[in-house]
C-alpha cells in the first residue's frame, strides 16, 4: 500500500469492534478503512491547493518566472491527485479481495454478516465500473461496531453510511 507511505491515518482502533465478522474479512476491511481515510486526506489537500493561488514571489518576476511558478503549483495539485487516485485504486482492489472471499470453495456464504458487510460496503462506495468516481469517504469510519452497524438490510446500511459523510460542498 504505497500511498500509505506518504501519509498514514491516525485511527483509534479501540473504537472498532469486529463482532461476529470473521477475521478473514476483518483484516481487508481495516485496510480498506485506512485507504479510504487516505483518499479523503489527499482529496482535501488537492481541493485546498486548487482553491489557492500559487504563492507570489517577494520580488518582481518575469513572464518566464510566472509560468514556472504556476507550473510548479499545478504539479503540486497533480501530485495530491495522483495519491488520491492511487488510494482509490487500492481501495477498489480491497473491495475485490473481499468479494473473492465469497467465491465457490470458500467457507463464507451469502447469508452471514460477512456478506451483509461486503454488500453494504459495495453499495456505499460504488467503486465499479470506474474506481476514481467511488464514494470512498463512506467507508472512512472513525468507529465501527459490527453488531450495531450491520443491523438490517445492506441497502439501508449503505445509505446510512453515505449520508453520514454527505457534504454538498464536496459534490
Task: Give a brief description.
The protein has 171 residues and is mostly helical. It has helices at residues 23-51, 63-100, 113-125, 146-149, 154-164; strands at 16-17, 144-145.
How is the biggest beta sheet arranged?
2 strands, parallel
Number of domains: 1
Order of helices and strands: EHHHEHH
Rg over CA atoms: 19 Å
Query: How many beta-strand elements?
Result: 2
Portion in helices: 55-70%
Percent of residues in beta strands: under 5%
Number of helices: 5
Strand order of the largest sheet: 1-2
- What form results from the Cα inertia axes? elongated
By helix and strand content, what is the structural category?
Answer: mainly alpha
Features:
171 residues; mainly alpha; 2 strands; 2% strand
Give an account of the 3D structure:
The protein is an all-alpha fold and 171 residues long. The protein has one domain (14-170). The chain has five helices and two strands. A two-stranded parallel sheet has the order 1-2. α1 runs antiparallel to α2 and α3 crosses α5. The chain is elongated, with a radius of gyration of 19 Å. The protein starts with 15 loop residues before the first strand and ends in a 7-residue tail after the last helix. The model has no long low-confidence stretch (mean pLDDT 89).
Amino acid at each position: 500500500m504505497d500511498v500509505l507511505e506518504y501519509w498514514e491515518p491516525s485511527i483509534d482502533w479501540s473504537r472498532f469492534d469486529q463482532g461476529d465478522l470473521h477475521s478473514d474479512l476483518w483484516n481487508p476491511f481495516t485496510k480498506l478503512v485506512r485507504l479510504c481515510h487516505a483518499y479523503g486526506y489527499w482529496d482535501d489537500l488537492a481541493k485546498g491547493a486548487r482553491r489557492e493561488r500559487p504563492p507570489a514571489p517577494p520580488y518582481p518576476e518575469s513572464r518566464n518566472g510566472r509560468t514556472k511558478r504556476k507550473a510548479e503549483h499545478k504539479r503540486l495539485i497533480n501530485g495530491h491527485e495522483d495519491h488520491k487516485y492511487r488510494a482509490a485504486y487500492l481501495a477498489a482492489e480491497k473491495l475485490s479481495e473481499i468479494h473473492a472471499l465469497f467465491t465457490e470453495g470458500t467457507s463464507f456464504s451469502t447469508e452471514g454478516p460477512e456478506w451483509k458487510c461486503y454488500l453494504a460496503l459495495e453499495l456505499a462506495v460504488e467503486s465499479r465500473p470506474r474506481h476514481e468516481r467511488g464514494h470512498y469517504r463512506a467507508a472512512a469510519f472513525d468507529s465501527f461496531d459490527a453488531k450495531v452497524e450491520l443491523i438490517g438490510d445492506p441497502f439501508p446500511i449503505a445509505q446510512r453510511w453515505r449520508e453520514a459523510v454527505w457534504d454538498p460542498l464536496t459534490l
